[in-house]
Queue: 2 jobs
Job 1
Amino acid sequence: MIADIKDIENFNPESDPLFDYVNEVADRFWAGYDPELGEVPSFAPMTFYQRYRSGLIDTSRLNKYEESEEVQGTLKAFGLDSANFWYLCLLIKDHVEGSTINAITRSQTHREEIKNLIAELNKMQPDIHPNFINVATNGELTLKVGKHPVRIKDGQTLTLINVALTEFLEKHDGYSDMFDSTSVNVDDTTILSPIKQFFLFDKYLSWFLKPLEANAEIYASKDKRLLVSRMIYLLGISNDKRFDTEYSDSGDKLNFLKNYLSKCKDVEIPTHNRYYLV
């Protein structure tokens, strides 16, 4: 029987053994930052604990988890603590949902927006000489602050703006909050496709499982990817039974999650997490 952390007096998310796995993954992927100290332990375990105590974490599938002989057998084969693993998977699920379901849309950084402008100005193909500038293609830059917009069509002027912006970014090529931060509008939200939820859940949990070696003497599935896949189904991230199925009707290895994620190429998550500050 897995202990409910709400019932543990003086529970400390940063040091309690029940959160060993939680802290390991959180520190790897969501480390905290202090202006004076730099990188510090993740704040995610505390946020998760607070959300859990507030009833915001779905624990309705705990019995199914504890009763799953396949999942529990695999955990035993890898020497994993069932309670630790349960809370780790709950954290990962919650974090993934925060990044994919009604997540805050991530706008471009200031550096990215300036680079995009430079890229457009470069399409004019400027040919710069000491005393004049030729451009192969005309362009127009419009800025509107008040009622009367300013329009710049002169190729030389546009090229000089290009040069000024390029040199300015080169001068400040290192990371800077001024250039590499984004403006955040918490009301601008989006829902990402389910495959991105599966991708993120697999990314975090597979990293945790990767270095583990199974006990060959224990009779159980030792397929780490199948364990991830089964947790996707068991936690309700997907109701597709194939995530929980090891073999097809013909007796072949299904590898459903692996094959499903093979569709993912260069996955981007263009959002800010609505629950966890990273």
Note: Residues 82-100 form the longest helix (19 residues).
Job 2
Amino acid sequence: MSIKTFRALLLLFVLLQGIYYGLSWFYPHPIPMPGFTMAFWPDGLTMELARGLPPAQRWSGALLSLPVLALLVYASWRLDGLLRAFQARDLFSSAAIGHVRAFAGAALGALLLAIAEQPLRGLLWRHWLGDSGAAISVGVSSEALLMMVACGLFYVFGGVLREGRRLAEENEGFV
């Protein structure tokens, strides 16, 4: 796959994440499509619970999950910057290294915020909005753990690029 194609898919991913966010919080209803039905709802809720949320819970939940979306968009932007540097064959530049490390940190931050968002939402709804039935639970899937490892590998990759840059600069001094 070419870098140009990957960048287009990355843009599509960001747009779909924004659509998913909006539909899951503000339209948690089945959407009929030719041959199938799609439905979106926030993590930790069922479609029925999401549909029945009072406005205060809907808006507070949406606002609480907004930093996850913002960090995901930021991580995608930094990944796009890295891909642009790769297109320019600028693999060991300070900017490319910064993009790798910022992407890894933002992706990990979005993942950790997504894990923390559900229990924080439960606490907010239970203690400030008076919903005594709001669940306070934390769940970490094997996919989330794998993503944490992948983010760590990207951060290590940034260190490898930084070391490659240092060696290239050192070798320029000898030539």
Note: The chain is about 75% helix and 5% strand.
